[in-house]
C-alpha cells in the first residue's frame, strides 16, 4: 500500500503540498478568473434566461452591468464569512478538519455553479459563488496554518509559498479556459470543471494527520504530536527537541478564550496589535491584483480588441505563475523583509507605469503596448514573492495561541479592502480612466510600504517565539515578560465578561 506520508523526503513533501495546494485553492483561483474572459457568455446566459421568462429583449446593458458586478463581488461577502469561521473551526477542531469541511463546502458550491449553467438559472450562479467563496475563505487561512505547522523552520517559507503559487496556477487555468477558443462558449463545462478538484481535495485530506503544533499546544497531546511530526518530517533523533522548541510558544495562561475575547486581547496587546498592522499593510500593497484578475480584459479593451485583451490577460497571469515558480527558489535565500520592500516598490511602480502608458496612448497609439508590459511587471513582482509572503507573513509573527485569530483578522480587513477598492475600480475607471489607479492603489501602497520599512521584522529562518519576543521588546513599555502581559490582558477581559454576567444575573433576580 502506497503511503502519502512525506516523512521528511523533500520530493514527496513537494508533491503532497503541491497537489493539496492546487486542489484546495482551485475554487478561489479558478472561479475568480474565468469570469474575466468569459463574461460575454455569461451575459448571453443572463439575457436568454430573462427573455425566456418574458422580459422582452432581455436585460439592458446597464442592468446587466449591475447584476454582473453583484455576481463578481458577492464573492467577498462569502469569503468574509469563511474568514470569520476560520478561527472558530481551526482552534476547536484543528487545521485538518477545517480543511476537510472547507472542501466539502467547495463541492457543494461548484456543483451549484454547474447546475446554474446547465439549467440557465443566473440566480443559482450567485448562490454558487457565495457558497464557494465561504469555502475559500475558510480553506485559504486553514491551508496556510497547516503548511506552516507541518514543515520545518528552514523550509517554512518554501512550503507556504505553495498556497499562493498554486492559487496563481488556478488563475492561469481560469483565464485560459474562459477564452472563447477553449471553454468560454461552453459554460456547463467551464463551471463543472471546479467540482473535480474539490472532490480530490476532500479525499486527500482524509488520510492526513493533524499538525504537530496543534496537537502539542492546543490538545496537549505530545504522543500524537510526535507521530504527526514523524508523518511529515520523518523519524529523526531530534524530534523530541523539536517538540520542546514548539513548547516555547505555549502560553503561560492555559485557559481557552472565546474568539471575541481573543480579538479584544489582540487589539489591546501591543505586540499582537503590531503584528496585525504589519499583516494588514503587507496585504494592502497587493490589493490592486484583484482588480487586474477580475477586470484586466475590460480595462485593456479600451485600447485593444477583445481577442487582444484576452490574450494580454493570459500573458499577464502566465507571467505571474512563472514568477511564482522562480519565487520558490529564492524565498529561503533572501529575507522576507527585503523581498516585500523591493518587490512591493516595483509592484507599485508598475501601476504608475500603467497610468503613464495609458495616458501616452492618447498621444501615440503605440504607447498602448506599454500598458501590457506594466501589467506583466505587476504580475511578475506579485508572483516572485510579494503576494505569497504578504499572505503568510502574519502567521510568522504570532504565537500559536493567537495565530489563527490574528491571521483571520488580517484576512477580514483585506477582504473588506479588496471588495471596496475592486468594486470602485470599474466605475472610477469609466469616469477618470487610469488616473483612478493613483488614489485607489498607488497612494495606499506607498503608505503601507513606508510603514513596513520602519516596522516589519525579518522572519526568515527564525523560530516564531524569537520573532514574537522581538516584537514585544519593540512595542512594550513595561519591563515584564510578554506572556505575562498577554495573560494579564486576557484575565482582564475575562473579568469584564464575568462582571457582565454578574450584572445580568442580578437583573434577572
TrEMBL record:
Main location: membrane
Domain of life assignment: Eukaryota
Record-given protein name: Major facilitator superfamily (MFS) profile domain-containing protein
Membrane topology annotation: Multi-pass membrane protein
Cross-referenced InterPro entries: GLUT, MFS_dom, MFS_sugar_transport-like, MFS_trans_sf, Sugar_transporter_CS
Protein localization: Membrane
An example molecular function term from Gene Ontology annotations: hexose transmembrane transporter activity
Keyword Transmembrane: yes
PANTHER family to which the protein is assigned, alphabetical: MAJOR FACILITATOR SUPERFAMILY (MFS) PROFILE DOMAIN-CONTAINING PROTEIN, SOLUTE CARRIER FAMILY 2
Domain Major facilitator superfamily (MFS) profile: 1-460
Signal sequence, renumbered to the chain: 1-26
KW Signal (keyword) present: yes
GO cellular component terms, A-Z: membrane
Record field: transmembrane: 66-85, 97-118, 124-147, 159-183, 189-208, 275-297, 309-331, 338-357, 369-393, 405-429, 435-454
Species assigned in the record: Caenorhabditis auriculariae
Keywords: Membrane, Signal, Transmembrane, Transmembrane helix
Amino acid at each position: 500500500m502506497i503511503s502519502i506520508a512525506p516523512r521528511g523526503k523533500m520530493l514527496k513533501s513537494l508533491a503532497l503540498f503541491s497537489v493539496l495546494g492546487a486542489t484546495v485553492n482551485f475554487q478561489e483561483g479558478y472561479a475568480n478568473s474565468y469570469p474575466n474572459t468569459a463574461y460575454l457568455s455569461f451575459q448571453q446566459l443572463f439575457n436568454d434566461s430573462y427573455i425566456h421568462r418574458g422580459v422582452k429583449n432581455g436585460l439592458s446593458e446597464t442592468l446587466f452591468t449591475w447584476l454582473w458586478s453583484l455576481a463578481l463581488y458577492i464573492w467577498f461577502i462569502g469569503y468574509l464569512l469563511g474568514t470569520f469561521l476560520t478561527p472558530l473551526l481551526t482552534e476547536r477542531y484543528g487545521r485538518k478538519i477545517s480543511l476537510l469541511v472547507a472542501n466539502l463546502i467547495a463541492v457543494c458550491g461548484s456543483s451549484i455553479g454547474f447546475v446554474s449553467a446547465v439549467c440557465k438559472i443566473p440566480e443559482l450562479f450567485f448562490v454558487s459563488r457565495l457558497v464557494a467563496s465561504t469555502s475559500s475563505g475558510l480553506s485559504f487561512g486553514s491551508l496556510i496554518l497547516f503548511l506552516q505547522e507541518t514543515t520545518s523552520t528552514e523550509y517554512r517559507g518554501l512550503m507556504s509559498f505553495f498556497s499562493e503559487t498554486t492559487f496563481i496556477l488556478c488563475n492561469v487555468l481560469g483565464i485560459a479556459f474562459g477564452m472563447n477558443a477553449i471553454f468560454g462558449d461552453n459554460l456547463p463545462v467551464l463551471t463543472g470543471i471546479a467540482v473535480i478538484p474539490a472532490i480530490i481535495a476532500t479525499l486527500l485530506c482524509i488520510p492526513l494527520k493533524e499538525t504537530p503544533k496543534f496537537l502539542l499546544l492546543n490538545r496537549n497531546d505530545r504522543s500524537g504530536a510526535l507521530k504527526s511530526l514523524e508523518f511529515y518530517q520523518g523519524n529523526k533523533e531530534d524530534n523530541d527537541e523539536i517538540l520542546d522548541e514548539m513548547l516555547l510558544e505555549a502560553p503561560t495562561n492555559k485557559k481557552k478564550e472565546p474568539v471575541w475575547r481573543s480579538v479584544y486581547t489582540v487589539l489591546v496587546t501591543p505586540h499582537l496589535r503590531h503584528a496585525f498592522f504589519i499583516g494588514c499593510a503587507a496585504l494592502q500593497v497587493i490589493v490592486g491584483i484583484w482588480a487586474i484578475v477580475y477586470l484586466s480584459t475590460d480595462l485593456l479593451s479600451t485600447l485593444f480588441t477583445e481577442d487582444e485583451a484576452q490574450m494580454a490577460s493570459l500573458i499577464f497571469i502566465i507571467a505571474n505563475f512563472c514568477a511564482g515558480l522562480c519565487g520558490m527558489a529564492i524565498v529561503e535565500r533572501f529575507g522576507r523583509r527585503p523581498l516585500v520592500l523591493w518587490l512591493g516598490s516595483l509592484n507599485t511602480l508598475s501601476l504608475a507605469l500603467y497610468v503613464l502608458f495609458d495616458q501616452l496612448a492618447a498621444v501615440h497609439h503605440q504607447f498602448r503596448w506599454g500598458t501590457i508590459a506594466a501589467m506583466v511587471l505587476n504580475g511578475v513582482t506579485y508572483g516572485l514573492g510579494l503576494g505569497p509572503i504578504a499572505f503568510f507573513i502574519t502567521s510568522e509573527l504570532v504565537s500559536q495561541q493567537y495565530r489563527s485569530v490574528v491571521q483571520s483578522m488580517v484576512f477580514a480587513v483585506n477582504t473588506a479592502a479588496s471588495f471596496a477598492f475592486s468594486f470602485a475600480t470599474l466605475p472610477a475607471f469609466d469616469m477618470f480612466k487610469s488616473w483612478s489607479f493613483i488614489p485607489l492603489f498607488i497612494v495606499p501602497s506607498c503608505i503601507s510600504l513606508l510603514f513596513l520599512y520602519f516596522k516589519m521584522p525579518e522572519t526568515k529562518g527564525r523560530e516564531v517565539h524569537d520573532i514574537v519576543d522581538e516584537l514585544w521588546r519593540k512595542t512594550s513599555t513595561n519591563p515584564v515578560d510578554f506572556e505575562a502581559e498577554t495573560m494579564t490582558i486576557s484575565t482582564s477581559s475575562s473579568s469584564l465578561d464575568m462582571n457582565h454576567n454578574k450584572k445580568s444575573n442580578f437583573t434577572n433576580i
